[in-house]
Amino acid sequence: MVFLDSELLKYLIYSQHEVIQNEVLVPRSVEFEPNDNYVLVGMRRAGKTSILYQLIQKLIEKGVDWEQIVFLNFEDERLINIKLEELDKITLVAQSLTKKPIYYFFDEIQNIDGWEHFARRLADQKQHVFITGSNSKMLSTDIIASLGGRYMMKRITPYDFKEYLLANDVKYDKNSIYIPSKLTKILKYSDQYLHFGGLPETLLQNNPRDYLNNIYQNIYLGDIIKRNQIRNPKALSLLINKVAQVIMHEVSYNTLSKNVKATGVSISTPATIDYLEFAKEAFLLFDVKNYVAKFSQKESTPKFYFCDNGILNLFLFKKDTVLLENLVAVTLYNRFEKDVYYFHSKKTKIDLDFVVPSAELAIQVAWQLDDFSREREVQSLIKLAQNSDEFTKFIIVTKDQNEKIIRDNLEIEVMPLHKFLLTYTK
């Protein structure tokens, strides 16, 4: 066994200080309570590490010494084989550097089996601890129970639209959409955001599509395959491709399994369920269930969406309507999480893209309202209002139309994408 060396730890700690000092960051809108410990989870390359860097820079500005900062990335090959029982060496080395309170930052610590027991002990000792991970299993009931309520959980997403604007040096307020020069920039970046998503590093690329394809193939797929020891990676790849083709539609696991089998690659329905669960755990996909379906149908025929539009767009060719609905789904899910549903009732013939019960919100998505689509989308919302008093706000999200429709004493707001993003981003 290779044991963790004290000199190596000191080298890693001090070299990381230099990296953080030199990092130029785009501010992210993540708030931390000063006396709480945190676990940050989210898809890879969403910016979790940068958020920790931002927090560290703020601590230094407030007078914390660099010797109080211990940042370790557990995907560093020099740490990749360490065991749970060796983690105490970290605290011993940290305590040799300063007598002041220490701030521990552990990046991707889920690579160490049993990490949660070490994390809980640090919290019990009143240490300041911040942890990141790229798998939702870190939010499982078993992990949360092991942490004993000592940590606050935060899900970190790629840039929301407001952060995306700031990252592109676009300063805005509530009146910006009425100022032509500012609106021009907002429209430009809403279109980029629609097609390339919000992963921070896409903004640094001359060809963001090539970058997205590279990280999808080599990081997202590779991570899911390795972490879950998948023996049939071709089936996983085809399955995710098939999911991209059915965005906007409810689909059963059995149907997805048959679609993959039709390509000549064998996959069972139980394996399909497992593989999609792995993709959800990696924050690649999420699902939305039918608000009015019975439990069995709710669970067996969801709608799937991608957590980032840029990744979804790798599978599409000139399907902006699909991208629009996916982006609406992402924006709602990032704000309301599990309280986002679709509404499909054979009995009442109501078919709605999204409802958010806690916000009393019903939403249809249409690229453009023409004479045909206008009547269809409006009638669906009217039917909902006539059959349910749960919802009081009715919206049709379009690419660029902006108006109010009054029909049968119901007010429906037709909202362009950029306005929707600015309104419903957290």
From TrEMBL:
It comes from Lactobacillus gigeriorum DSM 23908 = CRBIP 24.85. Residues 223-358 form the DUF4143 domain. InterPro entries: AAA_14 (IPR041682), DUF4143 (IPR025420), P-loop_NTPase (IPR027417). Residues 38-165 form the AAA domain. This is ATPase. It holds the Pfam family AAA_14. It comes from the Bacteria.
